[in-house]
Amino acid sequence: MEQRAEQDVSPYRVFSRAEWAMLRQDTPMTLDPSEVTRLRSMHDRLDMSEVAEIYLPLSRLLSLYVAATQNLFRAQQGFLGTEDAKMPYIIGVGGSVAVGKSTTARVLQALLARLLTTDGFLYPNAVLDREGLMEKKGFPESYDLPALLRFLSDIKAGRRPVRAPVYSHLIYDVIPNQWIEIDRPDILIVEGLNVLQAGRLPKGGKAVPFVSDFFDFSVYLDAEEDVLLSWYVSRFLALRGTAFADPKSYFHRYAKLSDQEAIATATSIWNRINLVNLHENILPTRPRADLILKKGESHEVEEVALRRL
Questions:
Q1: Which pLDDT value is given to residue 194?
Q2: pLDDT over 90 (residue 202)
Q3: Which of 5, 133, 191, 293 fits a disulfide with 93 by CB distance 3.0 to 4.6 angstroms?
Q4: How confident is the model at residue 1 (pLDDT cuts 50, 70, 90)?
Q5: Contact call for residues 291 and 220 (beta carbons, < 8 A)
Q6: d(Cα 46, Cα 299) in Å, to the nearest integer?
Q7: What is the pLDDT of residues 34-81, one digit of tens each?
Q8: Torsion of CA 59, 60, 61, 62, to 10 degrees
Q9: CB 133 within 8 A of CB 206
């Protein structure tokens, strides 16, 4: 009875994988197997069936939402008598470290739009070192939030072009004086750990913008904690022979670790940093998402929850 009551008041409609796959209808497959392979992250699972059964229904839904938003925008223009430029439709993708956000964002980019990662808006390592925040890299306080908010505000205002800083995962830092330009895209995907977070509301009622205020639609990638840890450790082990092996890599010191040492190190990093960030900042944002993709141990999406309108 208690479980039934929780389902009755849930703001989500929950679909099994098979039920969600049926919603693709006649949406065409525009990716081939080689493209899907390129989109997949090292440790993630992505194949043609995952694209067909999960991402094509999602792309169909988003296409309908974008069209409806454009109609609403034109209606507002008619009401106000204005001729404002069309605003980009912004999709936020959030979730834990190692859950597969980058893969999901790249698939959606390939099907729909332009992609931006919020890593470029992290403070440079020199600033994080000075402020004692290197152990909290990826936590909300490690981001230059005013710069990210200005960027999103300019995107929504239709300014062109808008510049975003570039982050290197090799050197684990923002690259000085390098930028990417975003020139009024129809759809922009913004991916990051804490993009769905809302800050503390001011008592005086003063407007305080959050990153998620600029999103038209948001996706949260979800998985059980023990599964996330397993994926994180597996990725860490694999990176020893790839990215970590590069002498320029910030993590080069881990390249020569034995399997046992690497597992211990990765587990320690997860428990000390990533799990804390998940509990304190990331997981609490899950109920704010418009769509939740729940993954199982195989990396496949097993359940989809769509927020009711």
A1: 92
A2: no
A3: 191
A4: very low
A5: yes
A6: 8
A7: 999 999 876 788 999 999 999 999 999 999 999 999 899 889 889 999
A8: 50
A9: no
Return the percentage of the chain with pLDDT > 70, whole number.
Answer: 95
Q: How big is the chain by its Cα radius of gyration, in Å?
A: 20
The backbone torsions φ and ψ at residue 199, rounded to the nearest 5 degrees and listed phi first, read -80, -175
Q: How many residues does the chain have?
A: 309
**Identity of the amino acid at 253:** R
Per-residue tokens: 111:
């099907």
Rounded to the nearest integer, the mean pLDDT of the chain is 92
The mean-pLDDT minimum among 6-20, 201-215, 241-255, 275-289 falls in: 201-215
* Nearest alpha carbon to residue 155 among 177, 123, 122, 187: 187
Neighbours of 225 (CB within 10 A): 13
Tell me how far apart the alpha carbons of residues 101 and 137 are, in angstroms, rounded to a whole number. 17
- Encoded tokens for 241: 């022979």
Q: Which residues neighbour 12 within 8 Å (Cβ) at sequence distance 6 or greater?
A: 292, 305, 306, 307, 308
Integer CA distances (angstroms), 207 to 149, 200, 288, in order = 13, 11, 19
Give the integer Cα–Cα distance in Å for 293 and 263. Answer: 28
Name the E strands within 112-214.
Answer: 114-117, 162-168, 173-182, 187-191
Given a contact cutoff of 8 angstroms between Cβ atoms, the answer to whether 257 and 237 are in contact is no
Q: Between the CA of residue 267 and those of 88, 191, 273, what are the distances in Å?
A: 40, 25, 10
Cis peptide before 247 (omega within 30 of 0): no
207 — pLDDT class (breaks 50, 70, 90) = low
Q: Which of helix, strand or coil describes residue 303? A: strand
Predicted local distance difference test score (pLDDT) of residue 5: 47
d(CA 63, CA 304): 18
Phi, psi angles (nearest 5°) of residue 116: -135, 130
